[in-house]
Amino acid sequence: MTESWFGKTFELTLGAPGHGGFCVARHDGRVVFVRHGLPGEVVRARITEDRGGSFCRADAVEIVSASPDRVEPVCPVSGPGGSGCCDYSHATVAAGRAMKADVVAEQLRRIARIERDVVVEELPFSGDGTGWRSRIRLAVDNSGRAGFHRYRSTTIIPEPACPQAVTGVYDGIAEARWRPGAELVIAVDGSGERHVVEIAPAAVSRTGRRSPGRRGASARRAASAQPRTEKAVMGSGRAHEIVSGTEWELDATGFWQAHRGAAQVYSDVVTECSGVEAGSVAWDLYGGVGVFAAGLAGGVGARGQVVSVEFSRRASSDGVSALTGVGQVRFVPGRVERVIESLPSPDVVILDPPRSGAGKDVVTAVVAREPRRIVHIGCDPASFARDASLYREAGFELESVRAFDAFPLSHHVECIGVFVK
């Protein structure tokens, strides 16, 4: 058995960026995924994880030869041994976007066999990469202090200071004591009101509490996904947001784009890319409160129809309230894969699935209905590429793709792809 490298430090030359916020290096026949470095740099990297396979993980703890794109890190809680929030905190904003573009192009090429040049576009209110995030989720440690999880760890760093957040998000949070094991959702809505909602601790099974490995992690994730009691500590707990003149009221813990410039831009882009016409039938899958559905409604006109499918009944109800009087929009609560066969045949399909992607069952069901156009939104380059590959297998080609820097200072990126047959 190969000797573990855990804790050892090696001098490495970093190669291309990889999906997940690291650069790829090689040492003694093995691949090393190195965080906190930049392409072309020579660093001293400490191994943080080695499970004995073909690769291991490391942090760049000393920069031997720096890239011209390196800056002084702006996030006090990321960096080696810190949180996973700002893994591009040490790069210029332009360099971060260039790395994301390379990753998206590489994932499309490797997974979907699609060659495409990608440019990552800036969103409004991004500035220097700080102050754009209107929604933050914090964990609470056993002492009642709120903070961020350490990267790939259940340990909490009790320092709510990530610079992604808009001004005022953290006011009074560090000084207060919260229910141990709870989570805090902090949202500053479109009206400027701040909502702080405490979510009760997850009821973790004995397996989840006692198992440190993957089995325990799976049990903890399952428990976190179950409904939990929510308590609005500050604000009403009901956020108000406006896109294209329509106002939504929704739970502060419900889904809304974290970047305060994203919802309007995505709505405009999706409406434009959809190509809907008067009388068209459009599906808005994973539709949330119906932001995309509202944009499509004007295009399909009074004779057309937009069907928005969303698992959360509360989100669907909020969408109905916001779009009262827009008769061409119909909300269907339920899981996409369970209700899709009951929907009217579409001309256009919009999908905004979770980070894991739509997957084979949903993509297969969508293409079987033979829409003329599919607009697919993905917040993870790998899952976006996997879904793109499924569309290609069904005869749909990627007509265009746009990528947006919806998560400055981090490796995350949003893609909107148009697929046609």
Topology (elements, then pairings):
Layout: E1 9-13, E2 17-18, E3 22-27, E4 30-35, E5 42-49, E6 55-65, H1 93-112, E7 120-121, E8 135-140, E9 146-149, E10 156-157, E11 183-188, E12 194-199, H2 206-210, H3 214-225, E13 230-234, E14 238-243, E15 246-251, H4 262-274, E16 281-285, H5 291-300, E17 305-310, H6 313-322, E18 329-333, H7 336-339, E19 348-351, H8 359-368, E20 373-378, H9 381-393, E21 397-404, E22 414-420
Parallel strand pairs: 4-6, 7-21, 16-17, 16-19, 17-18, 19-20
Antiparallel strand pairs: 1-5, 2-3, 3-4, 5-6, 8-9, 8-11, 9-10, 11-12, 12-13, 14-15, 20-22, 21-22
Structure description:
There is one protein chain. The protein is α/β, with parallel strands linked by helices. The chain has 3 domains: 1-70, OB fold (Dihydrolipoamide Acetyltransferase, E2P) (Beta Barrel); 135-188 and 194-235, no CATH class; 258-420, Rossmann fold (3-Layer(aba) Sandwich). Helix content is 23%, strand content 29%. It has helices at residues 93-112, 206-210, 214-225, 262-274, 291-300, 313-322, 336-339, 359-368, 381-393, and strands spanning 9-13, 17-18, 22-27, 30-35, 42-49, 55-65, 120-121, 135-140, 146-149, 156-157, 183-188, 194-199, 230-234, 238-243, 246-251, 281-285, 305-310, 329-333, 348-351, 373-378, 397-404, 414-420. The strands form 4 sheets. The chain has an 8-stranded mixed beta sheet, sandwiched between helices. The protein has a 6-stranded mixed beta sheet with strand order 1-5-6-4-3-2. Strand 9 and strand 10 (156-157) form a beta hairpin. Helix 1 packs parallel to helix 9 (381-393), helix 4 (262-274) runs parallel beside helix 5 and helix 8 (359-368) crosses helix 9 (381-393). It is globular and about 65 Å long. The termini are far apart.
